[in-house]
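Figure 2 data, in text form.
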Amino acid sequence: MSRNIRIVFMGTPEFAVASLGSLLMNGYNVAGVVTAPDKPAGRGRSLTRSAVKQFSEFSHLPILQPENLKDPHFLKALKELKPDLIVVVAFRYIPEEVWSIPGLGTFNLHASLLPQYRGAAPVNHAIINGEHTTGVTTFMIDSNIDTGSILFREEVPVFAVENAGDLHDRLMRTGARLVIHTVKALIEGTVTPVPQKKFLKPGEIIRPAPKIFPLNCIIDWKADPCKIRNLVRGLSPSPCARTALRKGDEIILCKIFETHAEIKDHNLEPGTIDTDGKHFLRVACNGGFISILSLQLPGRKRMSTVELLRGFQPEGYVITDPETN
């Protein structure tokens, strides 16, 4: 009987595909999918389908792609799907006109332990801030962003060797399992939503997770080595931490993918380049060095530092701020 409950799924990126796939594999009736409109991308600016749309087409699911979630034509089409439950994973803000439709309500999967890291980039910010633990949360959607009452949370460790891409993939899989657990509990009536404030410890400060902009990606070489390494980890493999090399009028923007932090006293100015020209390339910072292990120069593929130094000699270059040029 529970498998006959009509579910509408809302999501866009790859992170959401795992949850949608789990619903189907567990035999739930996905009556339709709502995802972002096709958007131009690449050099040819050809229209690109979202990861959720591609999966939904392969799975022969009805698809809606509204520009405006309050559009009367979309709301009519959504109601015609007769959803008993709406599941949201990695989608945009959901207005009340949408989340109030199904009898069982609308819940969202978020990639953090709410109320911590509300916002668009919880995975990135958890690593940037040096967290050792994060997780996934399902919660009932209300009129605000990521503030609804919590259904379930599951903790996930943050390993020191992983970057945002690694953590994203683990949270994606854990989240897919939690979505199934949440759907089952809502259908059976065995879960009671709990206000987020109940999960806050006395004196605990809520850390936000706003969208990452290019300015947030610039490395501050006056910071300490651990903070810089966490920034690189938290932005890798995309959108990437960045710095720039300058020699005279020549400026080269560098994307930094992987680093090693070295705590060490020195008398060098932060941003000073130190290299043997063959095997290592490191940059002085406050209280140590950052060894660059892999990076990318404009028009070239990602490469290791050893590969870079075979064809590029950084002698004479200095670190500069990309935003000042």
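Caption note: The chain has two domains: 2-199, 214-324.
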